[in-house]
C-alpha cells in the first residue's frame, strides 16, 4: 500500500468541525501501518494448515449444556456496552456498526505462520503446498490471544451458544463456519463484548471482556454482521471519524485512509456518501474503518459477504499481511472455499455447539472443508416433496 495520499484531501473536509479535530496520537504505537511493507508477505496461495501438535476437538456427541443458563458469567459486565442485549434479533444487531470497536494498538512483531500437519491429519493429496517463512514458528506454537471458555447464550427458549470453548492464537486466521442459525454471529458478538453471555468467560490478551472491557476492546477491531454505518458521511469522513475515535491524529488518519482506500479500491469513492455505496463497497469501507487503528485482534463477521471475487482476494491478502505482522483474525463466512483457502484454523459450529475445531488440516482431514461441514451439519436436505416445482404455472 502506498503511504501517499490520493491527492484528494478535500474529501476529508466538512463543515462540521467535529471531523477536523486532530486528536492526539497519545503515544499509541498504532502508527505502524496495517500491512506495512516491512512485514513479510508469505505469498501463500493455498490453505494455511497448521501444525499437527494442536489438539482438535470433535464433539459430535457432546450433550447440550443446561447448567449455565441461569448463571451470570464471571465478572460484571457493568462497563460493557448494553447494545445488542435485548432479546430481539434486530436489537442484537443494532448499534454494533455505528460504533467502531477497539483502539489503536501495534499488532506486534512478524511471527507465526502455518505448518503442515503430521500423520493422520495430512492435507489432501494434490493440495497446493504451503510455505512457512523460515524463522517463523507455527501458529500452533504462538500464545493464545483470544480465549473463550464455557460460553452459553440463550434467547428465551433458543439456546444459541451451547458451552463453546475456543482458543485463537496470535498470527492465526481463524474461521468460524456453520449453517444458518448455527450461532456464529451470537458467538462472535459474545467474544467481542457486544452480547453478554449467560455463562462463560472471554479473555482477549488476558483481559476479561466483562471485568476489564476497556482494555479488551482497545485490542480489538470488530466488523459486525449487519452493517449500520454513519452513511451520511462520505467514505473519507467515516474513516477519519473512526481513526480519530481511536486516538489517531489527523495526519495519520488521512495517511492511513489513503492507504486503505487504495488497498480496497475505494479511492474514487472516498468523496461520496456511504449511503450511495453498493453493499460490497459498504463492506469494504467498514472493514477499512475496522483496520485503521491497527488493532491486535480483528473479529470479522462475514467479511466476504457481498464482496466481488477480486475484492475478496484483496481482503485475503490484507488479512495475510496483517497476520504476518503479528495480528490475529477471527472471521465467519459461508464460503467454505474461501475459508479453506484463507484460514489456518477453523471451528465448525452447529446448533450452538462446536462440533470440530483445530487446524484446517486436522478438521478437514483428506476431505474438503465443505464435505466435512456438510457431514457435521447433517447432510444436504433432499427436497423430495417438491414435485410441484416442476408443474410450471402459466
Ligand atoms: N436477538 C435474537 N432474539 C432471538 N433469537 C435470536 C436472536 N439472535 C439470534 N437468535 C437465534 O439464535 C440462533 C443463532 O443465531 P445467529 O444469528 O447467531 O446464527 P448464525 O450462525 O450467525 O446464522 P446466519 O449464518 O444465518 O447468519 C438462531 O436460532 C437465531 O434465530
Automatic annotation (TrEMBL):
Key words of the record: Antibiotic resistance, ATP-binding, Nucleotide-binding, Transport
Biased composition (Polar residues): 1-12
Biased composition (Low complexity): 44-54, 62-81
Domain (ABC transporter): residue spans on this chain: 146-376
Any matching Pfam family: ABC_tran
PROSITE patterns in the record: ABC_TRANSPORTER_2
Region of interest: Disordered: 1-142
Main localization of the protein described in the UniProt heading: membrane
Subcellular location field: Cell membrane
Topology within the bilayer: Peripheral membrane protein
SUPFAM superfamilies from the UniProt entry: P-loop containing nucleoside triphosphate hydrolases (SSF52540)
Skewed-composition ranges (Basic residues): 86-96
UniProt xrefs under InterPro entries: AAA+_ATPase (IPR003593), ABC_transporter-like_ATP-bd (IPR003439), ABC_transporter_ATP-binding (IPR050763), P-loop_NTPase (IPR027417)
Record protein name field: ABC transporter domain-containing protein
Organism annotation: Curtobacterium herbarum
